[in-house]
Design goal:
By secondary structure, the chain is an alpha+beta fold. The chain contains 10 helices and 12 strands. It has a domain of 59 residues. A hairpin with a 5-residue loop joins strand 6 and strand 7.
């Protein structure tokens, strides 16, 4: 498997990205929440691998991995798996598979405080120092000072970007990687498992044999995973059943969606489950096979060259 990847085969994983709370938390918006733990802070890219491959917009990646921003909590929340799609400049798709979990926030991390309300001129005169200058309100404080030493948890997201959409395999891979982050000592370092997944595992070829791989050391790895691609002329393989649509849409609604897809109308898929939203979009695209959805960028490019 590693020899095939070294001979120029396309990688299964284009990038590994870690997104979470930076060392200085900045407000994502002018939240009016009175408690600093209830405010929303901006996420940041913490780690990327490999550094040699160009990475899409870091701002977009951070927003897709943690769409609700960095929301703090006094207790750990259960891990959450989600998927998203980035449309590249050439019209190709880059699928993101992310697993978010909570980890303790560094007590020394700085937290941006909201700007104070406009000062009252009379109060400013009363509180002025002996030299006539008023004391300025602090703009940031450490987590330890704000929490009084209590533990505070912030979300962190492990994400792999791939040209193929293999949610089940990547969910198992990320769960295995999560077991190496802050858990019991592992016989295989996290960096070794990551480098193997990103550098040595090739992407399956359309119509070719499947690719089997595992994440972790022998005896501690997740069960072997298998990914494959259908031939180019056949219906693309997917981890989801068409029942996802049939259970949630009436026959008339499904026919309306089918017609809108053929007419290239704008469609908005709304739902609280990020993994299910992407599944619905992929299944809708299968409804029009062998036709293919024309992206907005390609459509504009074609029209621009018309006389």
């Amino acid at each position: 498997m590693s020899s095939e990847a070294s001979q120029g085969a396309a990688p299964l994983v284009e990038h590994y990205v870690s997104v979470g709370a930076p060392s200085q938390l900045t407000l994502l918006d002018e939240s009016s929440a009175a408690n600093w733990q209830d405010r929303v802070y901006a996420p940041d890219i913490l780690t990327t691998y490999p550094p040699s491959r160009p990475l899409p917009s870091k701002v977009a990646l951070a927003a897709f991995c943690l769409p609700s921003g960095v929301r703090l909590s006094p207790a750990r929340r259960p891990p959450n798996f989600s998927c998203f799609v980035l449309t590249m400049g050439d019209g190709g798709r880059l699928y993101g598979h992310s697993l978010a979990f909570d980890e303790p926030l560094d007590p020394a991390a700085l937290v941006q405080l909201p700007p104070p309300p406009p000062p009252d001129p009379d109060a400013a005169v009363a509180d002025a120092d002996a030299d006539g200058s008023a004391a300025a309100a602090p703009t940031s404080a450490t987590v330890a000072a704000l929490s009084g030493g209590a533990a505070v948890f912030a979300p962190r997201c492990l994400c792999v970007l791939s040209r193929g959409h293999f949610p089940l395999a990547f969910k198992a891979s990320l769960s295995a990687l999560l077991s190496m982050v802050g858990g019991a000592p592992q016989p295989l370092p996290l960096e070794t498992a990551l480098s193997h997944l990103v550098l040595n595992v090739p992407a399956p070829r359309p119509g070719g044999p499947g690719v089997r791989f595992a994440v972790g050391a022998a005896g501690h790895a997740a069960p072997p995973l298998h990914v494959c691609c259908a031939p180019a002329a056949e219906l693309p393989a997917t981890d989801y059943s068409l029942g996802v649509l049939l259970e949630r849409l009436t026959p008339n609604a499904l026919l309306d969606l089918f017609g809108a897809l053929l007419l290239e109308q704008q469609i908005v898929v709304v739902g609280g489950d990020a993994e299910l939203r992407v599944a619905a979009c992929e299944l809708l695209l299968q409804l029009i096979f062998p036709l293919r959805w024309v992206s907005v960028r390609r459509h504009h490019r074609r029209r621009r060259h018309q006389p």
